[in-house]
Amino acid sequence: NAGVTQTPKFRVLKTGQSMTLLCAQDMNHEYMYWYRQDPGMGLRLIHYSVGEGTTAKGEVPDGYNVSRLKKQNFLLGLESAAPSQTSVYFCASSSQGLNTGELFFGEGSRLTVL
Amino acid sequence: SQQGEEDPQALSIQEGENATMNCSYKTSINNLQWYRQNSGRGLVHLILIRSNEREKHSGRLRVTLDTSKKSSSLLITASRAADTASYFCATVEGGSYIPTFGRGTSLIVHP
User: Where are the alpha helices (DSSP H) in A1-114?
Assistant: First the structure.
C-alpha cells in the first residue's frame, strides 16, 4: 500500500517554463489537496478537490492550475514558473473532508525556479 | 490566512523531559488536528480532537482543547531523541472541510 505518491521529488526550472506535478493515491479517497510549504510560513493551501472532476481554489491559487480527471490522481500545473514558486509542494488526501478525516501526505516535491 | 498559530516556534529539551506545544486559533472549529513532520519528509497525522472534546490521549501524547480560549496544547511525555521534528496544528473551521495549518513548532530533543 503506497499511500500518497508524488512525482517528481525534485525539479529545477527556469523562469517561464511549465511543468506538472503528479499526485497519486491508492486509498480511494474523495478529497485531495495541494499545499506549498515555505520557511516560516507553514503550509498554505493552493487548490483542492472534493471528488473526481471537481477542483476549487485555496488560499494561494494564482499561477497554478489543477485537474482531477481520475479519482486517484490530482495534478498541479505551473503554466509559467516564477522564482516566487520555489517551494516544497505537498499533496494530501483524506476520506472525509468535513469534520473528520486525517490527511495523508506525500513526501513532497521540491521545486526550484531560477 | 493561517488559522492556527503554534507557540513556541522552537523548543529544545533533554531526553526524558516533557515537551508542551500550544496552538491558538481565531474562529470556531469543527476539529483540531496535530501533525508531525520529520526533516525533509511529509506530515504525519498524530491526533484529532473534536470541538466537543476537552482531552485526548494517544500513547505518550496528550492533547487538550479549550474552545473558550480558542487554544489547544500538545504534550509529549518522556520525550526521546526520535521525537525531534516539527509539529503543526491544523484546524477545520465550522462549515468547512479544509484543514488550515499553523507555522509549526520545531522540537529538538537532545540525547
Answer: none
Predicted confidence (pLDDT) per residue in A51-102, tens digit = 999 999 999 999 999 999 999 999 999 999 999 999 999 999 998 754 566 8
Please give the pLDDT value at position A41.
80
Q: How far apart are CA A10 and CA B40, in angstroms?
A: 12
Distance CA A109, CA B12 (A): 28
Chain B residues whose CB is inside 8 A of the A97 CB are: 97-98
Residue B2 pLDDT more than 60? Answer: no
> Which residue do the cell numbers 506530515 mark?
B43
Span A46-56, pLDDT tens digits? 999 999 999 99
**Chain B residues with a Cβ under 8 Å from any Cβ in chain A:** 1-2, 30-31, 33, 35, 40-45, 48, 50, 88, 90, 92, 96-104
Whether the CA torsion A16, A23, A44, A32 is positive or negative: it is positive
As a whole number of angstroms, the distance between CA A110 and CA B2 comes to 22
Residue A69: CB atoms within 10 A of its CB come to 9
Cβ atoms within 10 Å, residue A76: 22
Between CA A57 and CA A45 the distance in angstroms is 8
